[in-house]
UniProtKB/TrEMBL annotation:
GO cellular component, one term: host cell
Residue stretches making up the RXLR phytopathogen effector protein WY-domain domain: 177-226
Protein name: Avh348
Domain of life: Eukaryota
UniProt main location, coarse: host cell
UniProt entry keywords in alphabetical sequence: Secreted, Signal, Virulence
Database matches in InterPro entries: PexRD54_WY, RXLR_WY
RxLR effector PexRD54 WY domain boundaries: 135-175, 240-281
Compartment(s): Host cell; Secreted
Sequence similarity: Belongs to the RxLR effector family.
Length: 416
């Protein structure tokens, strides 16, 4: 038997005859290559990284699926029978020269993972998912950075398909395994940042919706969507369209945007506001004739009718030009309930000032606090006073005398 030792982990035998399990001798041209997974804590000439890539390349080159591997627990190895003549040229390309034995281990890993420096790397993207599961285990033993694995699998290429890609899902599994190692981490945020380096927002929107259907990846998908809303203007309409196509309810979208519950804003809504995107989505979801009331009831139930700061949210919506009509309608629905509850403008002022003790009329006229209180004072006056009183109150606000306007409106309650 001609036994040529390739490495401490990989051995190739060319056997003129070998009795298999059936007892029949194999033809002389057949060979067996064995990948030995030793567990001895010793320094190997070939890193686990190269072992993984070499094993995968053999499987890929032969068109074999990793399920064809036969495990021999007593030998502590994984053997692939029926492998044709070993490619010694390939072995020479994969194995390191003696001169490279003293090179830093981290350098070995990086060189083996950078496409173009390893002849095996190009084949990795063509392997079967089951073969990569084997690679994941070996990469994990080397504590290989997930970004390097991502690159060697060519997942960062612009043309790479991520949606329903089994290799991408297996890479995510590797990230999970890596993140569980001691003193190692790779967060969902790092995943999203890595993906955005090479993939379009449109592709990531599609990917995020696909991942939401996988329970184990739902949190990642929804974090990705929040990240895109905050950081990418072009992705916002794409996400709204994707939610609409998936028939997501306003409640489901609200949970995506606010997984831990929402706090009512106390300022204008910026372009990347999650509230703003939610309002835009509800405009596409509910029928036009019931949209405003449905939106109002949803938010009233979500925050309770006792939280008067919801008036600030409606004022912020009204101050967005594209949602001005919706904001005005929501504000009117809210103010009508306050009038029915006999909330005077003075009472509303005291409640909106809590808990900060804000002197509302000392703020700028464009501030949501100022505008909300002004709007309610005028609304209240229109409901309880006549046209002349309403004209007077409007004039006082126009002449920068809001406190006088508030006093006149509040006194209307005494005449009822």
């Amino acid at each position: 038997m001609d036994n040529t030792k390739c490495d401490g982990r990989i051995q190739c035998w060319g056997r003129p005859s070998w009795a298999g399990r059936s007892g029949k001798a194999l033809p002389p041209h057949m060979a067996m290559c064995t990948l030995i997974l030793t567990q001895e804590p010793q320094v190997e000439r070939m890193s686990l990284l190269n072992a993984a890539l070499f094993a995968i390349y053999l499987l890929s080159a032969l068109g074999c699926d990793a399920s064809a591997l036969t495990n021999y627990p007593d030998q502590g190895r994984i053997s692939l029978p029926n492998l044709r003549h070993s490619n010694t040229a390939l072995q020479r390309r994969v194995l390191k020269s003696k001169d490279a034995d003293n090179v830093d281990t981290k350098g070995d890993i990086e060189r083996a993972y950078i496409p173009g420096l390893s002849p095996i790397a190009g084949a990795v993207s063509k392997i079967s998912p089951s073969a990569q599961k084997l690679a994941n285990k070996l990469w994990l033993q080397s504590k290989t950075d997930p970004e390097l694995v991502f690159n060697v699998l060519h997942l960062g290429e612009a043309a790479a398909k991520l949606d329903n890609n089994p290799r991408f899902l297996l890479w995510l599994k590797y990230v999970d395994m890596y993140a569980n190692l001691k003193f190692r981490s790779f967060s969902d945020h790092q995943i999203v940042v890595l993906l955005r380096k090479s993939h379009s927002d449109e592709k990531l929107v599609t990917l995020s919706q696909s991942l939401r259907r996988i329970p184990a990846r739902k949190n990642l998908a929804e974090m990705m969507q929040r990240y895109l809303i905050e950081d990418s203007a072009s992705s916002r309409p794409l996400l709204i369209a994707a939610w609409r196509e998936s028939l997501e309810t306003p409640d489901e979208v609200f949970k995506i945007l606010y997984p831990n519950g929402a706090t009512l804003p106390a300022d204008k809504l910026p372009d990347n506001s999650q509230f703003l995107q939610w309002f835009k989505y509800t405009e596409t979801y509910w029928p036009v004739d019931t949209r405003d009331l449905s939106t109002f009831k949803f938010l009233e139930q979500k925050f309770g009718d006792s939280d008067m700061h919801i008036a600030l949210l409606f004022q912020a919506v009204k101050q967005r030009q594209e949602l001005e009509t919706l904001g005005d309608s929501l504000q009117s629905l809210l103010f009508n309930t306050w009038v029915d509850k006999k909330f005077t403008p003075g009472f509303v002022q005291s409640q909106l000032a809590l808990p900060w003790g804000i002197a509302i009329f000392k703020l700028g006229k464009g501030d949501v606090f100022y505008r909300a209180l002004e709007e309610y004072t005028i609304h209240y006056t229109g409901k309880l006073g006549g046209k002349e009183v309403l004209k007077t109150v409007r004039g006082l606000f126009a002449n920068d005398k809001p406190d006088e306007a508030l006093a006149i409106a509040t006194n209307l309650a005494r005449n009822q």
